[in-house]
Write the structure tokens for this entry.
Amino acid sequence: MAGKKAVPLVRLASGYDMPILGLGTWKSKPGKVEAAVKKAVEVGYRHIDCAAIYGNEPEVGAGLKACFDAKIVSREEIFVTSKLWNLKHHPKDVEPALRKTLSDLGLEYLDLYLIHWPTAFKTVDGKSVNDAEVKNTDTWKAMEDCVKAGLVRSIGLSNFNKAQVAEICEMASVKPSVNQIESNPYIPNTELIDVCAKFGIATTAYSPLGSSDRPWGLPDEPVLLQDKTVAAIASKYKKSPAQVVIRYQIDRGVIVIPKSVTPSRIESNFDVLDFKISAEEMKALDSTNFFRACVPTKEVVIGGKTIKVPRDIKHPQFPFEELLEKFKDIYDQIP
């Protein structure tokens, strides 16, 4: 059975071990998350990835509690990740945000806490707007204090680019353990992964299946799970396209967190430990079709035309250099 297979572990800079395969919970609808977590643990997952902004941490906590009460696993056997939202970057807000997450999850400590984005927000007139005054280095110091307080074992980053990772590493007394980034064969992000490795930082790949259900997606955008190269490899190994792109990350040494609330898919996504993709096939999967899916957008009118641009592109810490380059000619006109 898939549930009896041992998931490889990644040793973090903190000295703790993190399962290379976990369950993601982004976009998991209310009413289904608790059952999804219980199913995942029963199948064999020992790593659950969540975040305050997902709005479902109480349900994740209920699922975990059910597993603990049924003695399927103990707390020490489960690795739980959560993330600090953009509105909570001010140093005074970091520990209270973490304590709220712990309360929602019903836990005494987190295994890993990440700064969700390098872009701090603040609330003005009831709306979230960019906050250029809060520095990521100051937020990081408050994250370190949470480690010292025993609230979290490892801390890390999410969506940070190479320069932003380096900035944190240069000042940190507690080194980042993980940088969680979008990664799949359409956006391998190999250069960023390599830079993180040089700093001793593990990488977690979110949206490993291509996130075709993202709310801002367009009908003409490529669909990873329909890719011909992926399909050919899946056919060879008698696996699904989803299983191939999950295994792709494991064979790169990258932690991977596919999301599902469907019991059969939760089980199928875990059944990736009995095959290995060849070096030639891995090279073929490293697509040149660069496509970043997970960037929230907004519509703006420039020159009489309605254009979709990244929502946070005007933030001074916006991390995606290739999008800044793409929109450089109209950057100054973006409100």
About this structure: Residues 141 and 172 are 7 Å apart (CA to CA).
